[in-house]
Amino acid sequence: MRTMHTAFIINPVAGRQNATEHIRQMIASEGLDPAAVKLYITRRSGDAQEITARLGQRGEPCLVFACGGDGTLNEVVNGAFGYPCLTVGVLPFGTGNDFIAAFTSLDAARDLGRQLAGEDRLVDLIQVNGRVACNLCSCGFDADVAYQVGAFKRLPFVGGAMAYILSVLWRLLRKMPMQVQCTVDGRQVFSGSCTLAAIANGRSYGGGFLAAPHADLADGQLELVLVKKVGRLKFLQLVGSYRKGLHIQNGQVGKEYAQLVEAHSARSCTITASTKMPFVLNIDGECAPVTEATFQVLPGALRVRVPAR
User: Fold this and answer.
1) pLDDT per residue over 165-179, tens digit each?
2) Global pTM?
3) How far apart are CA 283 and CA 226, in angstroms?
4) Which domains does the chain have, with CATH numbers?
């Protein structure tokens, strides 16, 4: 039986502080064989994906820990996709850690001993516009906010929280809905003004917003949740309910939200801009403008490590 190697891909700028030294201490305390452990520190966007792909190309069994937030995890997953020799683990040290929160508490996920003693599970992925996502994609208000946060962070004396607040205010001052057409498994289900849309494999995103509280990471289905055109005041009133997942009850849209929200289960779906104006697409926290996005579920496409209880 071949030895399972362990790799730690660390994003040093994820979260509030560099977790590299803490991870080194955890490795030492677990007494791992140094010959079977590799640490990689990312220096730029794309590094985590490239490093993971190189590990996969070796063809040797390897447990690859994404040490950062959901953006780091997305890169590792894209690098691991197509390499069955790789298992992806998550040591959550970023600001958004929604994927691993579907399986366990963040405290358990940050416990390397429990990670090493955990079990592996197969989960679905979302294939979207040439990439894969493990948790959730979205477009509309929330994606626009995430896309602009980076620009505000570059302003003098503006930190992460302030950048997010400024981005929300910026978005509220702009035209709210986007004009889109949506198809589910080849059938058009929506055409018109839409405030936001979430295409979910996992239940939550954005640090706990339960967009699709009924979603299952291993059921071979995606969940499309659409929030139709609403005014600014009504939208602000809905945010709390959306965060708590109250718009979906027992797998169905709640009666009080029936005029504002649509939900569909699908194996594939497409969102297309009805005008030439592109919309911002969020893929596990990575954002870019597009005019069309096609999503397809990939059942059991990724092996993930779930910490021991």
Assistant:
1) 787 777 777 776 889
2) 0.90
3) 16
4) 5-117 (3.40.50.10330), 136-299 (2.60.200.40)
